[in-house]
Amino acid sequence: MSAIRQDDFIQSIADGFQYISYYHPLDYITALGKAYEREESPAAKDAIAQILTNSRMCAEGKRPMCQDTGIAVVFLKVGMNVKWDAKMSVTDMVNEGVRRAYNHPDNKLRASVLLDPAGKRTNSKDNTPAVIHYEIVEGDGVEVICAAKGGGSENKSKMVMLNPSDSIVDWVVKTVPMMGAGWCPPGILGIGIGGTPEKAMLLAKESLMAPVDIHELIARGPKTRIEELRLEIMDKVNALGIGAQGLGGLTTVLDVKIMDYPTHAASLPVAMIPNCAATRHVHFHLHGDGPAVLTPPSISEWPDVAWTPNTEKSTRVNLDTLTPEEVASWKPGQTLLLNGKMLTGRDAAHKRIADMLAKGEKLPVDFKNRVIYYVGPVDPVRNEVVGPAGPTTATRMDKFTEMMLAETGLISMVGKAERGPVAIEAIKKHKSAYLMAVGGAAYLVSKAIKESKVVGFADLGMEAIYEFTIQDMPVTVAVDSTGTSVHNTGPKEWQAKIGKIPVAQA
Fold first, then answer.
1. For residues 12 and 148, what is the distance between their CA atoms, to the nearest angstrom?
2. Count: domains in the chain
3. pLDDT tens digits, residue range 477-504?
4. Same domain for 331 and 245
5. What's the mean per-residue pLDDT of the chain?
6. Which domain holds residue 213?
């Protein structure tokens, strides 16, 4: 009978979440490296290069690969013969481990968990409580999976109750394009089939914890219906041409994971949860002989890809002298290197700006002819100016876009993924532009930030308004002043090139 000590368990959880903040699973990185070699779309290839370069930098610098360090998810399989040498409950021990991990002084992680979600939405300050899934199994040990899931990918989760005769593949192929690019492809699709609605969702989440191994399945061929589904879904989703960051390309998913469970004769529950480019999970066992030992991967295992700004093909932009006329001249897909001073702001800041304008109150900063970056950075450590500071999903700010462009004098925005019809119409109306930075390259992006200071709404923490001084920050013109979106044109172009799915005529 194993006795799991309280300190060992807490330390293992803390170590696990620190570990996954800066180490990608090697199976994912290997698969992404092969996708980079295959990719024919220049925009997608550049995005993958940024993600791979960022991943290596994080492994070397032990800093988060994404500014969204995720909500803590823990799967526990507890052996029936386990004895706990502890005064705290297992739930409290998990939360204490998460608390220590996210407040680690040498690698502080961003606290994103809000208490009272339908009310005041107050930050818990330490990313607790975790979401914990328990299972009691045979044995005398504890099996642990620690995962950190970012909001961008979690927000794209889907669930449906199909009729038993409906096609699961058809539903997936129809649904994935509706998810947009806010989940930061190339990633992994987790699919749960059967059980009840909540069981299907749990299966989908748990399936994402398995290694990337579809290349092995392709090599040996499918032996079960689930394996056949994995191959068919992967082939058809990649044929959609969505590509890295939704810019169009050959690889949208690196693997499709499926778990199933018996279900009611009248039901076919199906859930789908994507894992983003910041795929983060670690698996270990405890047997009462001390905390988990997590062996760092060798840096030599990373693909030999080193992204640097393309100063020959990209246009340098001085944000301090930027004019509406210059913004209106940018073309879809054009790559820019931003320099100068840029403001930041995301959900909470935009909501407060809207409330202040409605009351006729003066804003803390002047947005006239300024650019705003949708970001919530990680706190800096040691000699950093700012911690990892990659873009957040821009569509959440769509409903504020007309207000910001019409009432504050803002002339451009930077975020990740596509913009919706409401935002695109406002951009077109005001001859503005939306610029896209690569999601999943937060540490790389932060190196372009030379100065950082809070200039408004300091009480909002990571959602405050910062002013960044930046040097050669890479972005792509994703929506130009005419309303043309590369997230519409890119995937259509590559879907036609791949040629496996009929392209609807306009």
1. 15
2. 2
3. 999 999 999 999 999 999 999 988 765 5
4. no
5. 96
6. 3-285
